[in-house]
Amino acid sequence: MAKRVKGVFITFEGSEGCGKSTQVKLLCAFLKKQMRNVLWIREPGGIKISEKIRDILLDDKNKEMAKSCEVLLYMAARAQLVEEKIFPALKKGAVIVCDRFLDSTLAYQGYGCGVNIKFIKQMGSYVTQNIKPDLTFLLDLETHKGLSRIQKPKDRIEQRSLHYHNRVRQGYLAIAKQEPRRVKVIDAGQTREEIQTIIQQHVVRLLHL
Known about the structure:
single chain; alpha/beta; Rossmann fold; five-stranded parallel sheet; 8 helices; 5 strands; globular
């Protein structure tokens, strides 16, 4: 990562219903058994200010939200999370496992909504203080299968068209192709145990466990 810190930063990405939140919890439990100082966080959210922004972003009553407003709100939530939680934890040597990060904005607002990718990357560098994940897991699943897994009432983003979510998925795959050393694509159609085994193998190598 760009900033020199002691900790390790692992992120999980993927389209709706890919099962990443389940895999995040399983990995955190595994790392705790290895006696590692683990911090689980999610985006947008993770702290008081960012959680309030999350509520605004996902509220299905805010359908009139402009794309520019959407991008800036995601970035604002991320800026606060990095400043308040991520950077201090990395300085202390923690292993951070984050459910979404900047790749999500590139996929959802960049590839999905058509916001300028270069602009997102430039602003992303600023709000993240140039911190990048050491390892990113992209759980890839056919879009319609992922959306069909959602049981709860869909939020503002989940309610968007299948065409939109297909663009998001293709955006993620494009990111993975650009950064294959960092982004590991995993078939999310496997069992959760099979997926977790693959994830743990990568993490063991990264952390020299």
